[in-house]
Amino acid sequence: MKQPLQIQFRGMEPSPALESAARDKAAKLDQFAANLMSCRVVIEQEQKHQQQGRPFAVNIDLTMPGQELRVDRVRHEDAYVALRDAFEAMTRRLEDTVRRARPF
Fold it and tell me: What is this structure's pTM?
């Protein structure tokens, strides 16, 4: 990535372990596209849900030349599961984008 990874926490205290997990997963995105310009990850603990407690939401914004990819509001009660699911969705979206951009 040309710009450093941006990780933002909302509604919760910053967690070094969660930040490290996000950095590891973001580094793996470079394997699929070498021209990534920036990546922004927002990890948010949402307001209390009536039956499920306080779920975590993860948003990822990825910028490539001429394109922006986004994964919105992947939610789960466990922050690590929400992070994993969001990065898996972004990996699939990035693979599809790169596959469509390649000449036959």
Answer: 0.88
